[in-house]
Amino acid sequence: MAEVVEFRVPVGRAQTLLVWGLEPQPGLEHSLFSAFSKFGPLYSVRARRNAAVAGPGYYAVIKFYSAGDASRAQRACNGQRLFQKSPLKVCVCTKEKGFQPQVLALKSNKCQELANHYLGFNGWSSRIITLQNVSGFDGENEELGKTLQKRSVKYLCAVEVSLPNHGVRTRGVALGEADIENGDDPLEFVTASRRVQKLAVGKALSSAFQKILLVVLENGKVAVEYSSSQEEPTDSLTEEELKGLVQVSELSSQQFDLEEEVLSDLSVDDELPSREMPSN
To answer: By CB atoms within 10 Å of each CB, which of 48, 60, 205, 256 scores lowest?
Structure first.
């Protein structure tokens, strides 16, 4: 029996485990991650203190990308001590009635982790087709009868993801932007520009991965399908047409409705996140 794994935040109840009976200890989430990641890649591990009415101790919610991995982990870990003296209780979460969670795209770093697990480090590559500065000035205050200009920096990026072993190529287009409080400060402008470039590249990479479906077969092998439902108008453009694409207003705003990237502070010398296949 095959299972489809998408490059999206897992929300299915079959992919989520509830673990309780946890004893307080340093590095509890790390211990949980080490124990449960043996069964497959994890999206998240969250440990919380029990409510007062439940008594002392902790419980945890663990999200797998694969329902099959979650099921195997539940069967193997339920009633086992694993890393503590008392046995754990592990069950698959039940569905909340009337609750329809929003399906979000994975951040680019999570996409890469998932691709590395199922496709191998050499099983995929990415490249930047174009990264354009589309910055401008905007903002108007009619009550004061004058235009208030606020400096902002915007970059439009197009990325291609290639899976040569499966004959699949996908593209993603995204916009990164940020306001600059002090537009006269050259260092602030350069730093903001670099952060926005990385944001645009990360979102574009995530967008490209949304069009890939991983079909995990029962024997552990992985097939790849292209998700035509995620196609965008820009997918039909040539590379030269993409490089000439500077009118952001012509793009659907839905293309940029991705999970917010969390970026650390970077020096202006940091390279943009690009990954290429190693040469033979």
So the answer is: 48
Sole residue written with tokens 């191998």: 120
Share of the chain residues as helix, strand and coil, in percent rounded to the nearest 5 = 30, 30, 40
The stretch 210-224 carries a mean pLDDT of: 93
Three-state SS for 196?
helix
Look at residue 99 in the predicted model and tell me its pLDDT: 61
Q: Report the alpha-carbon angle 213-101-8, nearest 5.
A: 25
Round to whole Å and give the CA distance between 189 and 14. Answer: 46
Give the predicted TM-score (pTM) of the model.
Answer: 0.79
d(CA 45, CA 36) in angstroms, rounded, equals 9
| Those residues with Cβ within 8 angstroms of residue 229's Cβ, 6 or more apart along the chain or in another chain | none
Q: Give the integer Cα–Cα distance in Å for 182 and 190.
A: 12
Distances in whole angstroms, Cα of residue 249 to Cα of each of 134, 172, 244, 246: 11, 17, 14, 9
The Cα–Cα gap between 199 and 159 comes to: 12
Residue type, 164: P
Q: pLDDT at residue 278 above 50?
A: no
H/E segment holding residue 187: helix 186-209
**Helix count (H) and strand count (E) of the chain?**
5, 11
pLDDT band at 33 (very low <50, low <70, confident <90, very high): very high
Distance (Å, rounded) from C-alpha 207 to C-alpha 170? Answer: 9
Q: Are 203 and 258 in contact (CB under 8 A)?
A: yes
Please work out, in degrees rounded to the nearest 5, the angle formed at the alpha carbon of residue 56 by the alpha carbons of 52 and 59.
90
- Highest mean pLDDT, choosing among 142-146, 153-157, 244-248: 153-157
Nearest to 179 by CA among 216, 145, 138: 138
Mean pLDDT value across the chain: 81
